[in-house]
Write a sequence for this structure.
């Protein structure tokens, strides 16, 4: 009995002092291809002011947007980044301000960031920067499929696209279905013939 009471007290204490945040997100996955010379570069995620303000509202945090310091000096549960990767200087394009976050590379030249699913715009951008180039990647017409928005960037040619999806035509699916039915019926007939 004492164990049960102790466990209940611990659980109540945890829930009283710990806020658990669970937000629906999709994964923004950026993959760099065709960097044959293995040139070093920094990849920045450019978060627009509107996204940061939206994330603050979703997290129900009482903050005002103040540039990069908004994320750097405060905890916003809906934006999960390391503070040291947030750049002091913001990026501006067409009078719109973006906070720059350097993304760490994961396996296979891939960079990942979780975006709030109910954010209505696709105005997040990427910036590839080194001595040779300073290239801005726009993904405003990209699609989210199965909880992921995949972006492929051809480093050598500065071409951005979504990966090609192999689509099986309906006619082929029907033919495969008919073939499977014929094989199953033939196998059943063969088994019955042996009995």
């Amino acid at each position: 009995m004492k164990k049960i009471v102790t466990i209940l007290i611990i659980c109540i204490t945890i829930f009283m002092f710990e806020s658990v945040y669970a937000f629906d997100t999709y994964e923004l996955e950026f993959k760099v291809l065709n960097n044959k010379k293995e040139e070093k570069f920094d990849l920045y995620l450019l978060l627009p002011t509107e996204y940061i303000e939206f994330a603050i509202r979703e997290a129900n945090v009482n903050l005002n947007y103040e540039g990069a310091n908004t994320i750097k000096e405060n905890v916003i549960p809906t934006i999960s980044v390391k503070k040291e990767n947030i750049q002091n200087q913001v990026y501006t394009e067409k009078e719109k301000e973006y906070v720059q976050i350097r993304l760490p590379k994961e396996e296979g030249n891939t960079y990942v960031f979780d975006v709030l699913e109910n954010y209505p715009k696709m105005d997040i951008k990427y910036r590839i920067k080194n001595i040779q180039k300073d290239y801005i990647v726009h993904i405003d017409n990209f699609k989210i499929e199965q909880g992921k928005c995949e972006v492929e960037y051809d480093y050598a040619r500065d071409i951005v696209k979504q990966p090609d999806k192999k689509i099986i035509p309906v006619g082929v699916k029907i033919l495969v279905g008919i073939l499977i039915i014929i094989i199953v019926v033939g196998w059943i007939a063969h088994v019955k013939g042996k009995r």
Summary: DSSP finds four helices and nine strands in the chain.
